[in-house]
Amino acid sequence: MSISVNYNSSAMRALMQLNRSDRDLEQIQSRMNSGLKVSSAKDNGAIYGMAQTLRSDISALGVVSESLNHAIAVTDVAYSAIESMTDLMMEMKEKALAASDQSLDDRSRAILNEDFEVLRDQLSTMAGNAEFNGINLINGTSSGLTPITDGEGGKSINVRDYDLKPDGADTPITASMVINPFARAKESFDRIEQALDIHNTALNHYGGSLRRLQTTHVLAAQTSDVLTKNLGTLVDADLGKESARLQAAQTRQQLSAQSLGIANQLPTFATQLLGR
Length: 276
Fold this sequence. Notes:
This protein has helices at residues 9-34, 45-99, 106-129, 182-235, 239-264, 266-275; strands at 131-132, 135-136.
């Protein structure tokens, strides 16, 4: 072994090894703190770019899920309200049919008409209450729904609106219809039958829309789960493996520091030689 007071090659090699151990230790600690093996483009530019694309897609699917959840809630409220209104109309139809009996006396028809009017007025209340987050699909105040169904924003499911309140544009039911006198009973009966057909059409539309919305929501959630799993595969650190690497890096750092200390003592041997 040659000894030089101008250049200590052993110390330089030991220093390089110590610096490398420090960098390895810093990287391992960063991975363990963040849980990520690729946290920036400096770690791996290609993988980081792929991860950012996946994060963008996952974020977009989150927006899709929110839009679909809102549409499902609004549509479900409308569907439930129409079902309840249809039940009321069935009762109205029964009373209108009973009032269409020519042999019925005026007092009995008047009692039936009083009950009929109560049911009729409840239709207006139900149609007005069928609202979620400021949107009502069945009282003529909305233009329908077009929730986002894909991450590109290019596709949608169209949920139309109806005006089913009494005197509404889509129903023959009026706010003043009665079943007394006899002539009005038959007219009201016919109007109710027409309205029931319209309600069945609306129920079919909203029922089908709910199925499509729910199916699309499930698909969006499943796609988001798959993308999240793929993202984890790309960037997540194996903490068990990193823990083992940490112990090894700490051991190398200690040995490198000891080696540097020994190497730094070599030039002093020259003075000892000269002293002799």
